[in-house]
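Q: Convert this sequence to structure tokens.
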Amino acid sequence: MYSRILSASLYGLSGEKTWAEVDAGRGMPVFSVVGLANRSVREAKDRIHSALINCGFSFKPGRVTVNLSPANRKKDGSHYDLAIALGYLFSSEQIKAEPPGEEMAFIGELSLDGRVCGVEGVLPMLTGLQRGGVKTVMLPGRNLEEARLVKGLFLVPVDSLSQAADWFEGFGGPKPVKADGGAPMDAERCELPDFSDIKGQEMVKRAAQVAAAGMHGLLMIGHPGVGKSMVGKRIPGILPPLGYDEQLDVTQVYSAAGQLRNGDSMIRSRPYRAPHHSISHTALIGGGSRPKPGEISLAHTGVLFLDELAEFSAHTLDMLRQPMEDGFVSIDRTYGKFVYPADFMLVAATNPCRCGYYGDPVKQCSCSETDRRRYMSRISGPLLDRIDLHVVMERPVYQDMDIASRQRSTGSKELREGVLRAREIQSERYKELGISCNSQLGAGQVAQYCALGGACEELMRTAFSALGLSARAYHRVLRTARTIADIEGCPDIAERHLTEALSYRLPEKYFG
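A:
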């Protein structure tokens, strides 16, 4: 007997229909799974055999062939178990009901005792199934809250294979739940460290505000202990809250990566990722034998903080260049293409040399000029070109650190006000373009929205030669100047805005 049950496959963040075709007949006892199935799928036969027996069903000796269609796409994961097991029960006539058609799909992993276990990537799989016309999905009860985000789908949560079979034969079981998008949620405001904790360094706080207001990249260079890491950890606290669509986009990435924490159905705060400098390029960018999102995708719409930037592998750092330019990462394999979003704000920090004290007025640097150049050369020119703001953090003076001092220290609340004001202006300005901030402007759009007046044009002409700017750096300076003007609420870029933007491009001597 033959049956055909619908499930889903996940390629990147794209969920696609996959049919589990099951043929149970006479012949030599064998259970084979075909259709470009990897090891985790081929092992399903052992999980399914035990689950059937332990749930009181019979597994008759004979030839069982399972084809996962389309057979020319690679299949990965354990979420096909439920569809294959139900297909066998329909084929062997242990379920007397009519098999479901194209409007119902099945997702779930089986344990040996027949329990239906939660799986990764449910949200993007269900989104893809809905686009394909599926109306109802049977899935693990553990994944119900995550699945409720896909508005309009009918969901049938089950906890065991027996419960799934009983549901078809009308013996009760769970009632379908219509996904309503989940309860309305505001962006999560967890307790984040405040910029007021950093004494002095007002110039760097201003740079952080500009970076957050336009989603620009920020590189901080300074001696050990000047507060580079403190600045990086506080930037998420001045970013605007996530909108609902952004929450959904980020949650799909975390779902595909298997990083939704127990009890979480949606990511509500902007991601902050701070990988160690020993990270591999696969873990940072994404990929692997079973492709998954990397740190740059997990930081989508949020902050990717790379501390000790010059300690990272030069090869790993250079792999950031294309995603920073495009806002996504594409991973090509012989069996398919996987695309993950990667529109992140890069915040990086580095010492000026290996010992950390090059140019320090207090401690003497122990590095030779050759050593210093070699150390900084890991940060390539093309990567630096893609980072909009470069700032040098100086050693603080005692008056800044004195706890008895009444000197005012700018806090996150004040910085956030400027960021929100600028983001609101940008959101309104670009609402017809499908972008939300200045850093996303293309070359043609820069000419339209970042036009310079006479005095600014002359200043830019002089700076272009003096600083040796590339065409890319030229556009990035203009986008930064546009953001500074937006913070002040100015409709046009003034000379002071352009001067400040140019001050964030460091001379070449800092990079060897």
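Residues 99 and 229 are 58 Å apart (CA to CA).
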